[in-house]
């Protein structure tokens, strides 16, 4: 099926409707003509009327369909439907009102004028004229009767054989046109007639007439003949001399002028009578015709209204639809431009506008995508950084934090975005050193700062190297700080281990090696010269060599202790209960003069430690505590489980009854060779600190008033192990 | 019967179908209160090579028709004939159909009723309406069909109906005539059988 373009279809529809209206109008014209002129279209009148009515009903159906469609469009709230309703209503009213007025006055005119045309006076005059014609005919009828009676008189006295000759004579003598003699039963006995009657057959008076004559004997009448002329018919009943009844039928012509005039009068009278009779029907027919014309006008107006309104509204409803589409975010909508008028210009402008909006939207989308890509890239970079990066806004609220920051601090920082740093610190007490570092630099307003912060968070003690930078952007609100921090715990540990190892190596190499020849030399001196020397000198040599040997031994012992401290053996991690280990160590001291009180937390979670190393820590501490006060050797050992917001730890406190640590030594008591005792290597607490830090723990001393050593060790990881770093691997030099 | 037969004619005379449809519609909506033409004394006989029909039709005009006649309106009557062959299990086959037309009018000057035979063009004048109507109602020796057209061993039907022809009325009157029962002056279809005669 070939596709028809909308334009062609539109014009096809217009032309077909125009054709329909035109043919309807023509058919109404023909109907009107048929009503008025009997000759031309009279035969077609009923057909035309029926066709018109059917066509109008069809038209009405079409319009009803249009109306229904419009009603549905209005109910569905289609764009432009209401405007179309208003336009159609307006056009229909504009068309219907004048047409109705014309219709009303036409009907009035028709009804009044048709009545007045048929005047009573004319009616009377025509009646009189007809009567006059009859009177004029009466004289001729009497003459014809008299003539016929004389013929009948003659016929009654002759033999039947002479009937024909007598009739011929009478025909020749008088102006009779046709003479017929009939028997008693109506059978023709004799006939004489001219060709004027149009045939050879006699015109036969009818049985009813013959019956009537049995009562009255004579019948005279004017009869119209087929061609319109008038004749006089006389029928007589007479008695023949042989007592038979006979009928004589005679036809007389009337003078042409009289006949014509009388016929004219008769025609005029009949036409007048007919018109008078038809006036009501004529009114009805004209009313019907006018109504049909009215309907045709209204229907064509309605259809035209629909057509015009649809054409007018189409661009507007397109625009409305387009606007809706734009409002709902569809900027690719382009409307067809069908006209080159103001509406077309409007549609064109709309198209330009949507095109521009679509372009702008695309550009915005592209830049958004670009920004997103940049952001994703930056995030990826940040998330791959091993350094923790957090940024704060102008109100010290957390804006961003990379995964490394969360990992280092052992906190899900991305959940805390937007929270003020002070509030964060309140919730997680472990963050306090970091907070203080940031806050202090914030208050001083320094642009760039560096600080080392030690935190005890999930995963244990952490040494962080923090670098803060002030962000100064155009917008005041955008400004803030970026803090980058690195977990340098392992690094520091390794550095320290390396340094101590180096020291130990050098000591062994530079000091311990010469000690043996010194000792050997001293022993040899003693052996060689002690017997030979005089007693007084021998005593001095003995004392001196003894001192040398003894001091060299002491030095060796000291060097061994130091090398023990510097040594970093492989850690053997084990999951243990701290309480069990403490009990195991304390059992060794039961024989000594010690009074040890223990207070264990029974719900202590396990810790992951190197059993041997930690045992050494405990020995060192117990020894220290016992030596603190020789008079009162009571020691209190307490363990407890500390569950803080972001990390869990196990705390061990060991309280002695000594004098405590002098205030000025409290900060450096864990340094090697710092001691309050006269005896000892000065490495006991340094080894304790080293081992505790190797376990990710912290240690400090509180004066309480005796010294109280506090050790905190992180709990063995079981939940969210990814947040906790594996215990620092031992670094070997 | 009345409603079926006009439909039957429809197939034969398509050009007049719409008239009959309209007439049917009017019959449907109105009942005639006046007497209709009556057909009786129908007789069919074979004369030589042709079947002839004699019949009598009683015409009795109602006041509306009388008034129209006396007001100079010419009334046209038609007697319609149909001959069909009976068939089993199927519609009857139409063999032939024809009609006789009459025109009746009143001549005011002579007070005569003029009856014109439209088929022949002959015209007669009658002093009274009853004589004119009885002349119109006397169907004498109407040639129906040739003898050879009627086959032996077949049954045929002859149907006839007399009616006033509304379409022959003046145009303004037709609308009224179609809508008024007074103007629907028509007899029932009269049916009589016909079979081959020796």
Tell me about this structure:
- The complex is a heterodimer of chains A (733) and B (198).
- With 733 residues, chain A is α+β, with helices and mostly antiparallel strands.
- Chain A has helices at 6-36, 45-76, 81-117, 120-155, 163-173, 207-216, 256-327, 342-384, 403-409, 421-427, 432-444, 489-530, 535-566, 578-587, 611-628, 684-694; strands spanning 178-182, 188-193, 218-224, 230-239, 245-253, 388-392, 398-401, 448-457, 460-471, 480-487, 573-576, 595-599, 607-610, 634-643, 648-655, 698-703, 707-714.
- Helices cover 56% and strands 17% of the residues of chain A.
- In chain A, strands 2-1-5-4-3 form a 5-stranded antiparallel beta sheet, sandwiched between helices. A 5-stranded antiparallel beta sheet of chain A has the order 7-6-10-9-8, sandwiched between helices. In chain A, strands 12-14-15-17-16 form a 5-stranded mixed beta sheet.
- In chain A, strand 14 and strand 15 (648-655) form a beta hairpin.
- Mean pLDDT of chain A is 82; it is low at 195-201 and 719-733.
- Chain B is α+β, with helices and mostly antiparallel strands and 198 residues long.
- Chain B has 5 helices and 9 strands, in the order ααββαββββαββαβ.
- Chain B has helices at residues 4-12, 17-29, 63-70, 129-137, 171-179; strands at 38-47, 50-58, 75-85, 93-107, 112-117, 123-126, 138-146, 156-164, 190-194.
- In chain B, a hairpin with a 7-residue loop joins strand 3 and strand 4.
- Chain B is globular, with a radius of gyration of 18 Å.
- The chains are: A alpha+beta (733), B alpha+beta (198).
- Chains A and B meet through helix 2, helix 4, helix 6, strand 3 and helix 7 of A and helix 2, strand 6, helix 4 and helix 5 of B.
């Amino acid at each position: 099926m070939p596709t028809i373009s909308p334009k062609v279809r539109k014009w096809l529809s217009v032309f077909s409707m125009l054709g329909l209206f035109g043919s309807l109008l023509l058919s109404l014209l023909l109907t009107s003509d048929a009503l008025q002129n009997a000759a031309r279209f009279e035969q077609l009148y009923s057909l035309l009327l029926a066709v018109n009515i059917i066509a109008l009903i069809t038209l009405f159906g079409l319009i009803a369909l249009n109306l229904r469609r419009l009603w549905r469009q209005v109910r569905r709230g289609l764009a432009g439907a209401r405007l179309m309703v208003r336009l159609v209503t307006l056009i229909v009213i504009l068309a219907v009102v004048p047409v109705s007025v014309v219709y009303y006055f036409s009907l009035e005119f028709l009804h009044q004028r048709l009545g007045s045309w048929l005047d009573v006076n004319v009616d009377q005059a025509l009646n009189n004229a007809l009567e006059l014609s009859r009177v004029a005919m009466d004289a001729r009828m009497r003459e014809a009767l008299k003539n016929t009676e004389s013929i009948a008189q003659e016929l009654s006295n002759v033999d039947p054989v002479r009937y024909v000759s007598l009739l011929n004579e009478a025909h020749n003598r008088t102006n009779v046109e046709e003479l017929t003699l009939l028997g008693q039963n109506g059978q023709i006995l004799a006939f004489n007639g001219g060709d004027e009657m149009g045939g050879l057959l006699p015109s036969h008076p009818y049985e009813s007439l013959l019956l009537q004559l049995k009562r009255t004997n004579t019948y005279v009448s004017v009869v119209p003949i087929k061609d319109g002329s008038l004749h006089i018919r006389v029928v007589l009943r007479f008695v023949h001399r042989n007592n038979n009844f006979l009928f004589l039928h005679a036809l007389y012509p009337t003078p042409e002028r009289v006949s014509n005039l009388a016929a004219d009068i008769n025609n005029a009278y009949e036409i007048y009578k007919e018109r008078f009779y038809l006036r009501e029907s004529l009114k009805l027919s004209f009313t019907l015709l006018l109504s049909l014309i009215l309907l045709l006008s209204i229907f064509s107006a309605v259809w035209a209204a629909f057509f015009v309104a649809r054409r007018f509204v189409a661009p507007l409803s397109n625009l409305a639809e387009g606007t809706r589409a734009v409002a709902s975010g569809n900027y690719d909508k382009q409307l067809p431009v069908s006209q080159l008028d103001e509406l077309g210009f409007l549609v064109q402008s709309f198209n330009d506008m949507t095109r521009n909006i679509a372009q702008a939207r695309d550009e915005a989308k592209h830049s958004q995508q670009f920004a997103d890509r940049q952001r994703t890239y930056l995030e990826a970079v940040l998330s791959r950084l091993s350094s923790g990066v957090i940024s704060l806004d102008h109100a010290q609220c957390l804006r961003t934090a990379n995964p490394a920051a969360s990992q280092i601090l052992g906190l899900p920082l991305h959940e805390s975005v937007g929270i003020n740093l002070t509030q964060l610190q309140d919730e997680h007490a472990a963050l306090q050193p970091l907070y203080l570092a940031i806050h202090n630099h914030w208050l001083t307003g320094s642009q760039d700062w560096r600080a080392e912060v030690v935190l005890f968070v999930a995963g244990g003690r952490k040494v962080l190297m923090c670098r803060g930078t002030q962000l100064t952007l155009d917008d005041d609100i955008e400004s803030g700080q970026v803090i980058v921090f690195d977990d340098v715990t392992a690094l520091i540990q390794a550095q320290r281990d390396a340094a101590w190892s180096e020291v130990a190596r050098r000591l062994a190499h530079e000091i311990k090696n010469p000690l043996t020849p010194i000792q050997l030399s001293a022993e040899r001196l003693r052996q060689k010269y002690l017997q030979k020397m005089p007693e007084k000198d021998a005593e001095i040599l003995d004392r001196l060599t003894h001192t040398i040997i003894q001091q060299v031994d002491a030095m060796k012992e000291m060097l061994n202790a130091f090398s023990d401290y510097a040594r970093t053996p492989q850690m053997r991690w084990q999951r243990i209960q701290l309480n069990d280990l403490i009990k195991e160590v304390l059992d060794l001291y039961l024989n000594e003069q010690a009074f040890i009180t223990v207070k264990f937390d029974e719900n202590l979670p396990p810790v992951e430690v190197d059993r041997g190393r930690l045992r050494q820590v405990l020995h060192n501490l117990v020894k220290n505590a016992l030596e603190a006060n020789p008079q009162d050797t009571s020691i209190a050992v307490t363990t407890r489980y500390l569950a803080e917001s972001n990390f869990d730890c196990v705390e061990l406190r060991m309280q002695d009854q000594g004098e405590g640590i002098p205030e000025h030594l409290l900060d450096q008591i864990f340094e090697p060779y710092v001691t309050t005792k006269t005896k000892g290597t000065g490495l006991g607490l340094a080894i304790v600190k080293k081992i505790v830090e190797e376990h990710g723990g912290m240690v400090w001393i509180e004066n309480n008033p005796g010294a109280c050593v506090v050790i905190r060790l992180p709990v063995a990881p079981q939940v969210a192990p990814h947040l906790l770093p594996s215990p620092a691997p031992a670094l070997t030099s | 019967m009345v409603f079926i037969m006009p439909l039957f004619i429809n197939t034969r005379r398509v050009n007049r179908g719409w008239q009959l449809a309209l007439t049917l519609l009017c019959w449907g909506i109105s009942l005639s209160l006046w007497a209709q033409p009556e057909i009786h004394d129908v007789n069919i006989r074979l004369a030589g090579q042709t079947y002839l029909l004699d019949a009598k039709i009683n015409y009795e005009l109602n006041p509306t028709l009388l008034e129209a006649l006396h007001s100079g309106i010419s009334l046209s009557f038609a007697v319609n004939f149909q001959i069909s062959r009976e068939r089993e299990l199927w519609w009857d086959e139409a063999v032939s159909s024809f009609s006789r037309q009459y025109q009746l009018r009143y001549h005011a000057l002579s007070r005569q009723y003029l009856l014109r035979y439209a088929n022949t063009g002959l015209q007669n004048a009658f002093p009274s309406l009853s004589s004119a109507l009885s002349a119109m109602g006397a169907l004498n020796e109407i040639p129906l069909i040739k003898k050879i057209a009627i086959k032996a061993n077949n049954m045929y039907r002859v149907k006839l109906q007399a009616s006033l022809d509304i379409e022959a009325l003046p145009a303004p009157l037709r609308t009224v005539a179609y809508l008024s029962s007074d103007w629907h002056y028509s007899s029932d279809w009269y049916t009589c059988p016909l079979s081959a005669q020796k």
